[in-house]
Automatic annotation (TrEMBL):
Cofactor dependence: Zn(2+); Mg(2+)
Protein name (record): ATP-dependent DNA helicase RecQ
GO cellular component: bacterial nucleoid; cytoplasm; replisome
Organism for this UniProt entry: Adlercreutzia equolifaciens subsp. celatus DSM 18785
Record's keyword terms, sorted: ATP-binding, DNA damage, DNA repair, DNA-binding, Helicase, Hydrolase, Isomerase, Metal-binding, Nucleotide-binding
Length: 570
């Protein structure tokens, strides 16, 4: 490790390894496989770049980010590391030259896309090359449970197994769910892997959630960006058309914005990405196609114009802010329509190629749970940071990786301990004594909920009424019927079904829209479950019993208080 520390200082100019990096580096140096789960910006690259210098032979880095490889190689070369990449952007002649030089031991590190591993010329090279290690970046792409499944990742396991001398394998990802981690271990064939899960907290990020009517969203975004005109930021939208609309709108307002989504030509994507990274266009408006592997340190805000499909996707995208450790803002604007869009995307995914109907349904069920957690994040009146850390913490604590060729944890997740005080009891982070929170080197900036930027309305009575109604309807009807019955609606269909005779009929005077929201909140919190499909039905969720307990209470967030004009966001 002495040598590794010396390389870290002399080549990269860093005084010390960050949490997690040391565990990964020492495992690799000892010849062990590793699964490293570290949040975006934690410094995963160093984990394989340092061993690449210290160890004999060449480190092979498998990455899906072809468009970034040239930049990555330039960066390692600046650190005096002999790096190369091999991908389809090179001419066949250049590719042959790179392979020839690699065979002669000219490189410490080589980046390749997963598709390359199946190329016979490359396989031939790999059989004779001395490989120090194989690093699989964005390793969650191997799993259908992850956000970015790529079938080409499935060939990595076979490639590794085909090597005559098996080098240690490092799988790196920011995705923490237990299912994805199991898949990584299984599908890459990791053996007795050291599993390191580092803290997911990003103390310099401040989180804010605001519910806005679709018509209000642009005005709110304008206000938010106007407070940060000199800064660089990313605006994520769910759909390509929204990217176009928002980007045009910002440009009309004189903001140097650019755009990125899968509908643009590779050329334009590359150009726009570069313009953003070089600060020529400091605002990037994009779908989730943008950002994997982007290392732009001065992004000081990430605004979501729509609700993403999961807390993981959200945290990964929001985590692109503040990578230099400076204070940064993560704002999520959402409306009811976003939930519908999320559900629509899940349904669409059922056409996933190569999956049996049964498998597709399993994937859909998992996606639904992920979306519910995201909806919960939007609705919660508790600490947003704690909500996120609990989400990842739960995944990380569930140490049930497969026993055969499984993994042992070498660095415990410390976040959960840090974040243990129950945020629902209303103790904001700023009030936490620092002794309790030794990891907060930058002062902890928390969230809009801890800062009280919302109005909570007690909806316990409405929630109880809904639970009673769902019980009476035995999970055979949808949201609209539940609400109609409660409000005593005089409709033909209620009469036809005999629902007007139920004791719960007409027992609530609450607004229709509020009851609809409370149904969603109950579903997000697991008291109710809403099925998918054309006619979603409302039934009981796993926590339904808790709603019958005497201390059950539920509050819902209202549209945030309007800030005074000109008052700067902190
Ligand atoms: P990830 O791949 O985990 O998102 P990167 O490898 O791109 O993160 O690293 C994020 C940033 O952290 C980079 O700017 C990198 O230079 C910096 N960094 C990595 N390791 C250290 C370290 N030990 N000390 C200081 N800065 C570091």
């Amino acid at each position: 490790m002495e040598q590794a520390r010396a390389v870290l200082a002399s080549r990269f100019g860093y005084d010390a390894f960050r949490p997690g990096q040391e565990a990964v580096v020492s495992a690799l140096l000892a010849g062990r496989d590793v699964l490293a789960v570290m949040p975006t910006g934690a410094g995963k690259s160093v984990c394989y770049q340092v061993p690449a210098v210290v160890m004999e032979g060449m480190a092979l880095v498998v990455s899906p980010l072809v468009s970034l490889m040239a930049d990555q190689v330039r960066a390692v070369q600046e650190a005096g590391i002999r790096g190369a990449y091999l991908n389809s952007t090179l001419t066949p002649g250049q590719q042959a030259e790179v392979l020839r030089r690699a065979a002669g031991g000219a490189y410490d590190l080589m980046y390749v896309a997963p598709e390359r591993l199946a190329d016979p010329r490359f396989a031939e090279f790999a059989r004779t090359a001395q490989l120090a290690l194989v690093a699989v970046d964005e390793a969650h792409c191997v799993s259908q449970w992850g956000q970015d499944f790529r079938p080409s990742y499935l060939s990595i396991g076979d490639f590794i197994a085909s090597l005559p001398v098996r080098p240690p394998v490092a799988a790196l990802t920011a995705t923490a769910t237990d299912l994805v981690r199991r898949d990584i271990v299984r599908l890459l064939g990791l053996q007795d892997a050291a599993c390191t899960v580092t803290g997911f907290d990003r103390p310099n990020l401040r989180f804010a959630v605001e519910r806005r009517e679709p018509k209000q969203k642009l005005a709110r975004l304008d206000e938010f960006i106007d407070e940060r005109r000199a800064e660089s930021g990313i605006v994520y939208c769910a759909k390509r058309a929204t990217v176009e609309e928002v980007c045009d709108h910002l440009r009309e307002r004189g903001i140097a914005a650019t755009r990125y989504h899968a509908g643009l030509s590779a050329d334009e994507r590359e150009r726009n990405q570069r313009a953003f990274v070089n600060d020529e266009a400091p605002v990037m408006v994009a779908t989730n196609a943008f950002g994997m592997g982007i290392d732009k340190s001065n992004v000081s805000y990430v605004a979501h114009f729509n609700m993403p499909g999961s807390v993981e996707a959200y945290y990964q995208e929001a985590g692109r802010a503040g990578r230099d450790g400076s204070p940064a803002e993560c704002l999520l604007l959402w409306c009811d329509g976003d939930i519908a869009t999320g559900r629509f995307f899940i349904e669409q995914e059922s056409t996933h190629e190569g999956l049996t109907a049964e498998e597709a349904e399993v994937v859909r069920a998992s996606r639904r749970r992920m979306l519910e957690s995201m909806v919960g994040y939007c609705y919660t009146t508790g600490c947003l940071r704690a909500y996120i850390l609990r989400y990842f913490g739960e995944g990380a604590r569930d140490e049930t990786l497969p026993p055969q060729g499984g993994a042992t944890e070498v660095a415990p997740n410390d976040d959960y301990a840090v974040c243990a005080p129950d945020p629902r009891r209303g103790r904001p982070w700023s009030a936490l004594p620092t002794e309790e929170n030794p990891t907060s080197s930058p002062p902890k900036r928390c969230c809009s909920n801890c800062d009280g930027e919302f109005e909570a309305v007690d909806v316990t009575a409405e929630a109880r009424a809904i639970m009673r109604c769902v019980q009476a309807l035995r999970g055979r009807f949808g949201k609209t019927t539940v609400v109609d019955v409660l409000r005593g609606a005089d409709t033909e269909s209620l009469r036809q079904w005999g629902l007007v005779n139920l004791p719960v009929y007409g027992t609530s005077e609450a607004r229709r829209a509020l009851l609809m929201e409370v149904v969603e909140l109950l579903a997000a919190d697991g008291y109710l479950a809403i099925t998918e499909g054309k006619f979603p039905l409302v039934g009981f969720g796993p926590r339904y019993r808790e709603a019958a307990e005497p201390d059950f209470a539920l509050s819902i967030k209202q549209t945030p208080k309007v800030r005074k004009k000109g008052a700067a966001a902190q």
